[in-house]
Design goal:
about 400 residues, about 30% strand, eight-stranded mixed beta sheet, single chain, binds 3,4-dihydroxybenzoic acid, 12 helices, alpha+beta, binds flavin-adenine dinucleotide
Length: about 400
């Protein structure tokens, strides 16, 4: 098999890249080790930045998204029993955020790609990358009981944090910068109408809690838990009790409950691999970096990376120019580090970090500042709705 760009991974990064390349007439094949049903039902992110939505619409991928999404103009920070609204749109010249499940977006991206005759191979096994020092590298993999080789001009490693592409880069090339936080998030999806019109980020003495949603009937909720927490210790009743306590406010408010549809635990981590390229292999999305979920940025960062990669590949195929591919790492890392800082800042401000009263007072002071100063709130809002992408 032969193609121009071999894309490993059918998550948001790999799928959006396949659409961006197709638009420029560049051939690609997407290789995914899970089944289509699995990737289409994997519950993950829910917040799309303003520019992510603009990009998807510009690519003709926004029809269902625009029909079914929830548009939010603000969010709430809840601490010491009081909720304070950050009016995101007012502070950012009218920008909004969009609530739309990542798995719904993945469904749209897969369907649109297959409808256009694009190649996505699901259920592949034993993926391995070879010949990175050669002019045309190869991806070897198993599919339907047979061994295959896909030769390409470039490989895009969009295979997530645990994928094989980053690990295929020779030792000594990459530098990993990492921070692991002493807590995880326990997330649930519940068949229950949202208890609040907007997202609520809550700082509580018992730990962080987040109220989010997917639509008018489905809520998404998260709790800070111990890093090594096991789901068995969290029967539904305990989860609802803890959410009720941490999301409680002095004003009249009630948490709507309902059947739990899905439950999972996610570790909190900041991670960056630099550079994001080795010869003809380019890393994008979670394969290159992880941000703690408090900033709601991972999916958006994955999309931003592949816009830069697509621009570089387009320049290379159309004119032979290599400058944009050469500067891929530098271009991406500017945004990556801004997002790393914002996500770390949100995480540190809202989670229970220790029993140290000094830490607690610093958090409360920061929260009071960000909810009372228009200047501080504008900075949060600007980062939360996201910075524009270089896309044309
Ligand atoms: P992935 O989505 O991980 O896709 C990688 C793909 O590669 C997968 O389909 C995987 O099966 C496949 N793969 C792996 N190994 C191989 C292999 N060897 N061969 C072939 N295929 C392979 N981000 C936000 O922006 N907003 C949020 O609100 C948010 N909330 C989150 C909540 C949770 C609970 C979690 C876990 C994440 C959240 N994120 C959020 C982060 C976001 O989901 C990720 O950053 C995003 O999925 C990254 O996309 P990706 O395409 O880079 O990687
Ligand atoms: C959601 C997830 C996040 O990490 C976040 O910061 C906000 C919302 C969500 O799944 O809806």
């Amino acid at each position: 098999m032969d193609t121009q760009v071999a894309i490993v991974g059918a998550g948001p990064a790999g799928l959006v890249l396949s659409h961006l390349l197709d638009r420029q007439g560049i051939d690609c094949v997407v290789l995914e080790n899970r089944s289509r049903a699995y990737v289409e039902s994997r519950i993950r992110a829910g917040v799309l930045e303003y520019s992510t939505v603009e990009l998807l619409c510009a690519l003709g991928l926004g029809d269902r998204l625009m029909r079914e999404r929830m548009v939010h103009h603000g969010l709430e920070l809840l601490f010491e029993g009081t909720a304070h609204r950050i009016p995101l749109s007012e502070l950012t010249g009218g920008k909004t955020i969009t609530i739309y499940g990542q798995h719904e977006l993945v469904k749209d991206l897969i369907k649109a790609r297959l409808d256009k005759g694009g190649d996505i191979l699901f259920d592949i096994s034993d993926v391995a990358v070879y010949g990175l020092d050669e002019r045309r590298p190869t991806v070897r993999f198993g599919h339907r009981g047979a061994a295959h080789e896909l030769r390409a001009d470039f490989i895009a490693g969009c295979d997530g944090f645990h994928g094989v592409c980053r690990q295929s880069i020779p030792l000594g090339v990459l530098r990993s910068l990492e921070r692991v936080y002493p807590f995880s998030w326990l997330g649930i999806l519940a068949q229950a109408p949202p208890s609040s019109a907007e997202l609520v980020y809550a700082r509580h003495d018992r730990g962080f809690a987040l109220h989010s949603m997917r639509n008018a009937e489905v809520t998404r909720l998260y709790l800070q838990v111990a890093p090594d927490e096991s789901l068995e210790r969290w029967p539904d009743q305990r989860i609802w009790g803890e959410l009720r306590t941490r999301l409680a406010r002095d004003a009249d408010w009630e948490l709507t409950t309902g059947p739990v549809l899905e439950k999972g635990i996610t570790p909190m981590r900041s991670f960056v691999a630099e550079p994001m390229q080795y010869k003809r292999l380019f890393l994008a999305g979670d394969a290159a970096h992880i941000v703690p979920a408090t900033g709601a940025k991972g999916l958006n960062l994955a999309v931003a990376d592949v816009t830069a990669l697509a621009a570089g590949l387009t320049a290379w195929y159309s004119t032979g120019r290599t400058d944009l591919l050469d500067s891929y790492t530098t271009t991406c890392l500017q945004r990556v580090w801004r997002v790393q800082h914002f996500s770390w800042w949100m995480t540190s401000m809202l989670h229970k970090l220790s029993d140290n009263a000094f830490d607690e007072q610093l958090q409360l002071s920061q929260l009071r500042y960000v909810t009372s100063s228009a200047t501080a709130a504008t900075s949060l809002a600007e980062n939360y709705v996201g910075f524009p992408y270089a896309f044309d």
